[in-house]
Amino acid sequence: MTPVLSIKNLSIDFLTPGRPVHALREVNLSVPQNRIVGIVGESGSGKSTVVSAVMRLLANNAEVRSGEIKFEDRDILAMRESELRALRGEEIAMVFQDPMTAQTPVLSIGQQMVDIQYRRSLSIKEKRQKVIDMLTRVGIPDPSDRMDQYPHQFSGGMRQRISIAMALMMNPKLLIADEPTTALDVTLEAQIIHLFRELKKSFDGSIVVVSHNLGLIAELCDEVVVMYAGEVVERAAVDDIFYRAVHPYTQALLDCDPARLDELSQTLPTIPGDVPDLQDVPEGCIFASRCDQKLQQCASNRPPAATITQAHDVRCHLVKDG
Amino acid sequence: MADLLNITGLGVRFRALSSLAAMLQNVSDPWLDAVLDVSLSVGVGETVALVGESGSGKTTLGRSVMGLVRPQKGSIQFGGTELCGLSEAAYKPVRRNIAMMFQDPVASLSRRRSIKAQISEPFKVHGVPVDDDETARLMELVGLNHSFNNRFPHELSGGQARRVGVARALTLSPKLIIADEPTAGLDVSVQGEILNLMRDLQKQLGISYLIVTHNLPVVRHISDRIAVMYLGRLLEQGDTRSIFKSPAHPYTRVLLDAVPQPDPAKRRELASIEGEVPSLRDRPAGCEFHPRCAFRQERCLSESPESRPLADGRIVRCHFPLEAG
Questions:
Q1: Which of A113, A122, A142, B296 is deepest in the core (most CB within 10 A)?
Q2: Are A234 and A246 contacting, i.e. CB atoms less than 8 angstroms apart?
Q3: Domain count, chain A
Q4: A positions 142-171 inside 8 Å of B (CB)
């Protein structure tokens, strides 16, 4: 089965008045049909750049140096603006981090959701019925009354549900959720996780969840892509990442999460050092300067992406291909 | 342990409507109770974490200790001095002993002044002579080298800005630091550094912390005691270990259960958590948590529970606290 989304060898620079920032370097990832794929990484890892590239929403100073982004069998990077408009919202939809700013405050949510269906040849009444059905699916109480209310009349958790309803309105093949719970309290976060799981049962598309929250990733995803400083360092099934992580960065990231420390500890683990300067990318492995298992070759040779098992790729010299 | 800070029966109200608007809308009570009848103490060298959802009043409580918000009711004793009702001029010396770390480290720094100028600013405010050695000592204490002296906030990473925030809080050797969300916006690999730094400074200098946060996994490791707030009230407070082991208030249990577990084998059914925090303008009758409580009974709908101590020293505001174990 062809994957819904496949990114091959993607490298993106941001041109700045000084030297270019090499924000993404040879990124490979694929999102199979009907799966939830998580992209994890810390700030500056390039996870948002990947998402912006897929939506073709990159800033003007971005330059795609190499690679391709395929949605089913179409090349997103080669699409014209008119083709992109047909793609965004219809086939790929997005849920943003901050539900308080993702909707326009001057239209009722029902009106916004009717507007989303502008390509459908249905009567207003039928479109409103579809809105009511969708709001019911995401758990908004009394949707036929509340659809005529404005965003400020809803709480944060409700608004995130509405954002998800808007994204699913056109039944997209791919839903991208960028930090969907970061702006929410922990009880609402749990509710949104629950909602995603429920939707998964009836929604026959794929979901990409971008987050730095390992808890969210573990609760939701089937597969995980770990990014560090603009590179994919490891990708595997969720169990392989959480129980059999190979890359030292993935291991260190997992070790740092206080929620994973069973023993109470006086000192919390950290990853010493800083993320390298992406205007001046080090020659060898990108993680070498902070790695506690580094070998001699790590400083000078960039490790190739090695395949451990069929669905487990790692970019590290500690791993031999095969 | 001697108490450094002792808050009793504290109440903070904000005016939500002007008297004219209240009259026009026929609202008899135009006030919001942001903090309601809160009693809490912090011992010398102790770390107390204040947890709760947004709108629970935890930040307001922190700010009222600092004198940034003036409470209408109750008392705040700090080192034997009553802070409630102090004039602005009388508050100034108190603020030498209480420092605050604000939520957004970059926004809380002036973008037009160098790091060194900002670290020496509190000395100038309080008329304490300061020299370069002193600022250098502070920066070394928080792990920033002298090259940061002449940098500006936009040149710092989130973790570095946080360190400057810690250095500023430490300037006048305070006895108490109120840290509002000290790890918000930090990556996991960096948040440990800041928390370890705060812990080391506590050991060296004997500082007490009142940490306002919603990050429960972090709270478990760094705090001695926890106080759980909901709609301005403290629902449960007690020793961190025992609360994490067996929460007595149903709300505490909901909060702890809601934290997503970074372990795919522990995926759970998240069914028990219903609803959202009600508006402060529309407080539920009886126990204010009852609309979301899975264990509510008749009595909870009408009768508001009082705070009462449990056998292990915890204080719980619930008619039917959960069994330990």
A1: A113
A2: yes
A3: 1
A4: 155-158
